[in-house]
Design brief:
The complex is a heterodimer of chains A (about 500) and B (about 675). With about 500 residues, chain A is mostly helical. Chain A is built from 22 helices and 2 strands. Helices cover about 75% and strands about 5% of the residues of chain A. In chain A, helix 8 (about 200-220) runs antiparallel to helix 10. In chain B, the strands form 2 sheets. A two-stranded antiparallel sheet of chain B has the order 1-4. Chain B has a two-stranded antiparallel sheet with strand order 2-3. In chain B, helix 3 runs antiparallel to helix 4 and helix 14 runs antiparallel to helix 15. The longest helix of chain B is centred in the C-terminal third of the chain and has 72 residues, at about 580-650. Residues about 650-660 of chain B have low confidence and may be disordered. The chains are: A mainly alpha (about 500), B mainly alpha (about 675).
């Protein structure tokens, strides 16, 4: 199994689901699960192969596509891309499991779902800027559909906002790529070719922010973050998981593997600004999350804060920072997926509220103990406690910050402290009743709430899967770190990381 | 048996923390209602850890200057840079591991009785096991990184256990407060750790000559300077000290510890008295060589002086506050803060062995005090206010006996109690310090007050007549709670033999030397003088307290006798000198308002800005829409009819091949390109 199977399985799955006759629409979830499993298996096998054969060449596939523009169908998978494929595979499986009960137009739902997954796989594997852009565009439309049709609160607004931001960011990315293409001679869209070209410093200074901003919007960088919380809240569970889990990573991935290597001099100029915005984002997201009344908004703003760590890691332009950023992408993908899965699917579909005060009245620790335990663990992971993936990621980013911008560290530390505060606050208020709710219970008001349905097996397996992945990274990060480092040895980063 | 196991000790040592952790995992998997089984799993795992820890202790007894075991394993590698973790066995970690497992085992047994009626009995033992695993990892870690990870995990376990009665809002609030306050210290620890890592390239303590605590690294850390000419070792150790202050409840990061008494009493005994709160002291003791790496001419280093002074202030502050408290557990909590201050004084003044001795003795007698306080609370039907107790000497004679032993050890009753000798060692260390007499005087004052408030508590709880009318009769606790108390009481007495001036076995052992008995050492002028001071302290403290509290009024609402004498100062002491109010006003409120401001920026600026943009787009859409409708569309309809005729020729272009569409995109792009070159020309 080579990495291409990830893309093939997702799109083949989407096609199969569409071809299902109407009376078998209920089976589409099984096809989606199989497609996700095949994709994840392909990613896992490729990761293991790479780990066992670090010295060999990376897997790649190349064929002419539009020769007149120098556009090739070029896929390749170094260690970094492989870890992100693995993340996508895991989130895809969990997403299907958390969508097990979708009954409204299931064929369309799972077809859109698998199309997004396929597009995301494509972005991570593309070695041709044009192909990457096409895959990136493939993600946008189904994303809109998922939110607008299956979403909840304010869904059309959320979907519109998300799509407008996405299209805006695409326009910037396209512009940036075309500039690079033209300035590099207009012969090839190959990323390695574009990165190897010499651009004038002046061009880099204005082209870098355009390209970087295009990607950073999708990564939820402050102050271009507002699509993220609204979009997450409006989206159906599986879509919030995909959005926070992998789609935001597309932006970070693009910034790391396209924007920075293409215009290293421009990056050097803008680096302090990015670092500043990232730290503001960490604090801003954390403080805003402290004030939210809606559980999904808390998670949405925590994503802004956590993605700030990714951006901060990139801005340090150090080995540790890049490693930390990549690890944080994976860690946040898993943890945000888990948090959204529990809040959106497990809790909301039973209680029909996400309001922290109202949730307190449901005594969730008693009525849904499994969810309370899983959410407690997810909260611990989100706070970056050791044993979970977030710790390894955050500590790597912090080491990078120490090397580049030590004076930012107190602010990062404050961000970590506030993260603890808002995480504990939301967890306690949602799952463990506060004084008001327990007094209501003694007065007899609380006892009127009907008992909640017990957890179902798809839910339990999805939660367990995500928790195990986060724990396994936290306890034994070696394979992940080795793969990420493999990606960072690519010639793309030579000029940035290996300066004499 | 010890000899047979020695070759496997490096592997076995990992089991000490892992067994309780595995037990915690197993308990988490057990269904509800398996409480009895859960407690057996937890006890069994801890018993295993305890055995291994004792074997390990035996292995370190032979005097040696190098650690018995120091392993290093790659946790992960970044290129050539390997981040390593490992276990370390030397007298310090061996004594800590043995103490933690032993005291924890006593407390586990006690808990099976104390928590018997609790519904979530199994969960309780799961959390306790998690805590023990993390704590033992902390103690045995051979790398600052592993120590930090365990440090964070004990914080999590402490959060879970303080908030165990989460239905009580006070317990939930106390849990959060503890977690967040210690996290402030943790962040300083983190930054200090990263600083050390970037300076020395390693976080291992001992690693075949390249570890942090070995000569090479220490010399380079002391030689490197940072802003203001401060040595890197001093700067980083100050940060580590802040971390230790958070965990060990030193002023001004102490406010969480008294509140943590909202947790179940066995938790207070294990975590917030005997072990976890001592982790800060242990951290400083473990990294003491770094603290000491850069000393100025007087032989004092900035970080160590800071530790000594902070310890001194904390010791006196907490002792003063303890005088005015009325909750039996809060008094003990403040006395814990105070005793941790003593340990800090010892560390700051160079007495690492004295600090460790006091730490271990304190663990025994303070666990004993908390557990017997729990027995009192149990017997008085969950009453915690000492004003409403009294006369328990007669109804709970066994509890009184063990409590008295703990109380006398803490107050420093002479000769037969471990607390006397360990406090003596601390005072000695402070007295001979070159950096000033201040910490010594603070320690003496605090010791005097300790004897005073402990006597007050004992008198109010056990003597006089019952002051709470109309309540069920107090009763003695069951055997399962009493036996652990006897064991701890025996420890509180017997441990006194290892640290007397006549046979300084503990101190020599820590330093890797063999100890010899020297009966005359007690009568050297210096030791004798200090002995006199100690005796005077106890006599004055106990005597004054006896005089004031001997004849207490039988009315539980009567004001404290001291209250009349001290007036306004009393209220200040009751309110713990206003730290909580100050923090509420100076930190929490501003941060909360900041969060409010940021949230309103988000809601009132960013979100509307986007909405406005969207409105603009819609308006534009309507404009273009109407133009479209009136102008273009009409024309378009006309064109369409014409188009239909030519459709066959046009369909050639639309065969559905993506290449075709992409060509169209390419065309658009070339327009952009032309634009670009035109603009840049």
């Amino acid at each position: 199994m080579n990495p291409a199977w990830t893309i093939i399985s997702a799109f083949a799955g989407a096609l199969l689901v569409l071809l299902l006759p109407a009376r078998m629409a209920g089976q589409s979830r099984i096809i989606a699960l199989i497609a996700s499993l095949v994709g994840a298996a392909a990613a896992a096998v490729s990761c293991l192969t790479r780990l066992n054969g670090m010295e060999s060449d990376v897997w790649s596939f190349k064929s002419d596509w539009i020769p007149s523009f120098g556009i090739q169908f070029h896929l390749a998978a170094d260690g970094l891309a492989l870890t992100l494929l693995m993340l996508t595979g895991v989130v895809a499986i969990a997403g299907v499991l958390f969508s097990w009960n979708v009954t409204k137009r299931p064929r369309a739902f799972f077809a859109y779902f698998l199309t997004i997954i396929g597009g995301v796989y494509g972005v991570f594997l593309s070695q041709d800027a044009f192909l990457l852009f096409v895959c990136y565009e493939i993600v946008i439309l189904p994303k809109y559909m998922l939110i607008a049709i299956w979403g909840s609160t304010n869904r059309e607004y959320g979907a519109m906002k998300l799509t407008m931001y996405s299209i805006g960011s695409s326009a910037l990315i396209l512009l940036g790529l075309v500039v690079a293409y033209a300035a590099a001679g207009g012969t090839s869209f190959d990323i390695a070719h574009l990165a190897a070209a010499e651009y004038s410093t002046e061009l880099q200074n204005w082209a870098f922010p355009i390209l970087f901003l295009g990607f950073a919007v999708l990564a939820g960088m402050w102050p271009f973050h507002t699509w993220a919380p609204t979009g997450h809240v409006a989206a159906p569970t599986a879509a919030s998981m995909l959005l926070a889990g992998v789609v935001m990573k597309l932006g970070a991935f693009g910034a790391l593997c396209i924007a920075i290597p293409l215009f290293p001099d421009g990056f050097a100029v803008w680096q302090p600004f990015i670092a500043g915005l990232a730290v503001v984002g960490i604090l801003y997201g954390a403080f805003t999350a402290l004030q939210q009344k809606d559980l999904k908004f808390v998670i949405g703003y925590s994503s802004v804060s956590h993605m700030g760590f990714v951006m901060l890691g990139l801005a340090t332009a150090t080995h540790w920072g890049f490693r930390g950023a990549a690890l944080q992408m994976i860690s946040h993908g898993v943890i945000a997926g888990l948090l959204f899965g529990i809040a959106g699917r497990v809790v909301y579909e039973r209680t029909h509220t996400r309001d922290l005060t109202e949730l307190g009245g449901f005594n969730l620790w008693k009525s849904l103990p499994g969810a309370a335990i899983a959410f407690t663990l997810a909260t611990a992971a989100s706070m970056g406690l050791p044993g979970f993936s977030g710790f390894v990621a955050e500590i790597s980013v912090v080491i990078g910050v120490w090397e580049s911008y030590p004076w930012l560290l107190p602010w990062v530390a404050l961000g970590i402290i506030i993260t603890g505060a808002f995480s504990l606050r939301a967890m306690y208020r949602a799952f463990f009743p506060d004084s008001k709710a327990s007094s209501a219970e003694t007065m007899g008001a609380g006892s009127s709430t009907p008992p909640l349905d017990p957890l179902t097996w798809p839910e339990i397996s999805a939660m367990a899967l995500l928790l195990i992945v986060s724990l396994s990274i936290g306890i034994y990060p070696k394979p992940w770190v080795t793969l990420i480092d493999d990606g960072l040895r690519s010639p793309l980063f030579q000029s940035i990381l290996f300066q004499p | 048996m010890a000899e047979a196991l020695t070759p496997h000790l490096p592997q076995l040592l990992w089991l000490v923390p892992l067994l309780p952790m595995i037990a915690a995992g197993v308990i988490a998997m057990l269904p509800n209602g398996c409480g009895k089984l859960a407690s057996k799993v937890a006890l069994g795992a801890l018993f295993g850890s305890c055995l291994i820890a004792l074997i390990a202790l035996v292995c370190t007894l032979a005097p040696s200057s190098a650690p018995t075991i120091a392993t290093a394993h790659h946790w992960f590698c970044y290129g050539d840079e390997a981040v390593k973790v490992g276990v370390l066995l030397d007298p310090m970690s061996a004594s800590m591991a043995a103490m933690v497992t032993f005291v924890a085992f006593c407390i586990f047994v006690y808990s099976t009785g104390y928590m018997e009626t609790e519904q979530r009995f199994g969960r309780f033992f799961g959390f306790l096991s998690l805590f023990c695993g993390a704590m033992l990892m902390l103690v045995l870690a051979n790398s600052l990184l592993l120590l930090f990870m365990a440090w964070e995990l004990v914080g999590l376990a402490s959060y879970l256990l303080i908030g165990f009665y989460f239905k009580k809002p006070a317990a939930a609030a106390a849990a959060q407060k503890a977690f967040i306050t210690t996290r402030v210290g943790d962040m300083a620890f983190l930054i200090g750790m990263i600083w050390l890592y970037r300076e020395s390239g390693t976080l291992m303590f001992y690693d075949g000559g390249t570890g942090l605590l070995e000569t090479n690294a220490l010399e380079s850390l002391a030689a490197a300077t940072t802003c203001g000419g401060l040595a890197v070792s001093a700067g980083a150790s100050l940060l580590l000290l802040v971390g230790a202050m958070g965990k060990s409840g030193q002023v001004p990061l102490h406010t969480w510890l008294p509140d943590a008494m909202e947790g179940p009493t066995p938790v207070s005994a294990l975590i917030h008295a005997a072990t976890m709160v001592a982790a800060g002291v242990f951290l400083v003791a473990r990294t003491h060589p770094i603290f000491q790496a850069a000393v100025d001419v007087d032989g004092a280093s900035i970080a160590l002086s800071a530790a000594a002074w902070i310890g001194g202030v904390t010791a006196l502050y907490a002792a003063l506050v303890a005088m005015a408290q009325t909750d039996i557990k809060r008094i003990l909590a403040y006395s814990t803060v105070s005793q941790l201050g003593f340990m800090m004084i010892a560390l700051g003044t160079g007495g690492v062995a004295a600090a460790m001795l006091h730490l271990i003795c304190h663990a025994f007698f303070k666990a004993l005090l908390f557990l017997s306080a729990g027995s009192v609370i149990h017997g008085c039907h969950d009453e915690q206010d000492i004003r409403k107790m009294g006369g328990l000497r007669k109804t709970m004679p066994k509890t009184f006996l063990v409590y008295a032993i703990g109380m006398m050890a803490l107050s420093g009753f002479p000769f037969f109690f471990s607390g006397f000798w360990s406090k003596e060692a601390v005072l000695h260390s402070a007295q001979v310090w070159q950096g000033g007499i201040g910490p010594f005087l603070l320690a003496v004052a605090a010791a005097l007050l300790t004897a005073f408030y402990m006597t007050r508590q004992a008198l109010m709880v056990f003597f006089g007549s019952p002051r709470k009318p109309g309540v069920d009769h107090p009763h003695e606790s069951p055997k399962v709670m009493l036996v652990p108390l006897y064991v701890l009481a025996a420890g509180a007495v017997l441990l006194s033999v290892i640290g007397t001036p006549m046979w300084q076995w503990f101190e020599k052992w820590m330093g890797g030397e063999a100890a010899e008995f020297d009966g005359g050492a007690l009568f050297h002028g210096h030791a004798l003088g200090l002995l006199g001071v100690s005796l005077a302290i106890v006599t004055v403290g106990v005597g004054a307290s006896w005089k004031i509290y001997r004849n207490l009024s039988a009315d539980s609402n009567a004001p404290d006798p001291l209250e009349e004498k001290l007036g306004g100062v009393w209220g200040f002491l009751v309110a713990a000198m206003g730290f909580d109010t100050l923090y509420e006003k100076a930190i929490i409120k501003p941060l909360a308002s900041l969060a409010c401001v940021i949230n309103s920026i988000e809601r009132n600026i960013f979100v509307p800005l986007m909405a406005a943009l969207e409105g603009g787009f819609k308006l534009f859409g309507r404009l273009t829409g109407s133009t479209d409708e009136k102008g273009l569309n009409r024309g378009f309809d006309g064109v369409c009819s014409g188009m239909k005729n030519r459709a066959s020729s046009a369909s050639d272009a639309q065969v559905g091949r993506p290449q075709g569409y992409l060509r169209a995109i390419g065309l658009g792009m070339s327009v952009l390109l032309i634009l670009y070159f035109w603009l840049s020309a």
